[in-house]
Every structure is written in structure tokens, then in C-alpha cells.
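@channel anyone free to eyeball this complex?
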Amino acid sequence: MDPIQKKNALRKLTYGLYIATARDAESVAGGTINWLSQASFEPPLIMAGIKRDSRLHQAIENSRAFAVHVVGKSQKNMATTFFKGAEETNGKLNGFAFAKGATGAPVLADPPAWFECRVLESFHRGDHTIFVCEVVEAGVRSEEEPLTIREAGFNYAG
Amino acid sequence: MDPIQKKNALRKLTYGLYIATARDAESVAGGTINWLSQASFEPPLIMAGIKRDSRLHQAIENSRAFAVHVVGKSQKNMATTFFKGAEETNGKLNGFAFAKGATGAPVLADPPAWFECRVLESFHRGDHTIFVCEVVEAGVRSEEEPLTIREAGFNYAG
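replying in thread with the prediction:
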């Protein structure tokens, strides 16, 4: 396999942009992710690839749950602040309002849609862990269209 | 959880449109899929959700390999023909040229990019199986932009 062809082919896949958050005994954690897809209608399952050496990964491993937020077309800046993780200050997460969700994960107030999920299985074969999760809570807050990673001008594939 | 909120939140996820193909001892098989994402850079892994009761699923289970083709912006019609599976007639697949790939899966000639992958693990928890696979061959054939499922006017989520 030619590694350049492999990189360029994998970069043709289409992704959204999502903010994932979790909380363990230590603190909140968060990150901007794009390797995410639904994986079953019934039960409602999703699969997500989360960077192995991240604080978000650690918090998901510890709490076995996380929240996913769909980034809206106007919210590129919000997504950018989560590239470096999440920090709770004055009751906000990277400056954004949130509330504690059903799983304990922080649920941000502003994204157009969100869901919380509980980890059923994880697969540790590569540099990201694949978490297979059941969606246990969800909500839609606005009709704002989702931002794709291509529209945002970011790239995380290959 | 409110099932309507769950459905609407999951429908805000962003997906491309892909044609997956496989071959087992019986015949070729194929389908249009969208639940697909990269899952690791090193090794290059992908994860795909494949409908459990489909002929494509059966051929992947048997051959432990499949090919994925990125559908280009001009190729909505090609994707549509694979909604009902794949049939080999006069050396073509649903009327489209293909060649046998490294894994034995049929590789279509027209899509802008494709890769072949071998199944490492599978999770059978929902109505779709999650196949975790290593990318073993790949190619890019044109600079045509990928079609998203939203642009195509299709919907497979919720």
C-alpha cells in the first residue's frame, strides 16, 4: 500500500465536528472530535474513536460515559477552544454554560444538539480507542445546521 | 429519554456516502453505507456499521474483508443503484466497471477514492454489526469532491 494514496483516500471521508465531554472523580474533560458515527438503531448505539493519550480518554475510561455535542455552523470558535481540552472556571466550561447530565458528563447549553452515552465496549488496537456506546439521553436545542470538518477548514484523517 | 429528541439529535450527525463491496464463495455483494469513520492513524483502522440482515454483511462475515468507495458529488445515481445490493452482469457491478482487489473484494473504477480493509474484530450488539478493520490497500483516482448524505437528500440515522 502506498502511504500517500492511503492518506489521501482516507481524507476523502466526510466528518462532522463534535465536542465530547466527560467527568471523572478528578475533574471535567473535553475535546473536539470527528471520528464518530451511529452504529445501530435499536438499541441506539454510536461508535467513537478517541485519542488514547488524551485526558478526555482517561475520563471516559474512568466514568464509562460521555456527552457529545453537535457543533453548529456558527460555532467554529467554540469547537476550537476544545482542541486543547476543557477547563472549568466560574461554573463554565471553556467559558461556555453547561449543566450536569444524566450520566454525570457536562452537557453544554449552546450546541444545536447533544446526546449522552454509556460505554458498552472498547477496542484498544490503534492510537485511538474505539468506544461502542449506548445513547441514553439526548436533546435538540435549535435548528442550526451542523458544521462539517471540511467547512471548518480542519483536517483529522489519513 | 424522549425518542423524538434522540432521533432528531442523531440526525444532526454528518456523514458521507460510500459504496461497500465484498466477495465470498457465493458471489459479489454490495451496498450503500454511511456509518463509517476512521478509527486510528497507526495502524490505519476504520470502523463501519453494516446492517446485520444484509447480503453485504454475510459476504463480509465470510470473507473478512471489503472495499469502500467514496461517492463523488456527481455520482448520486451510482450510489442509488447499490441501495438494493450488487449484481454482477457482463463483468460489471450494477453496470459499473470493477476489478478484483488485493483482498478479493471488487474495486469499482469510477469513484474518486477507495480503500480495501480486512476485518480485525466485530461487535454484534445492535441491528448493525460494527466491523473494526485495517486498511490494507487504497487509491485516489480523481480530485472530485465527496458527496455527503445530506447533499444527496438521503437520511440514515436516528
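from a first look: Chain B has one domain: 3-152.
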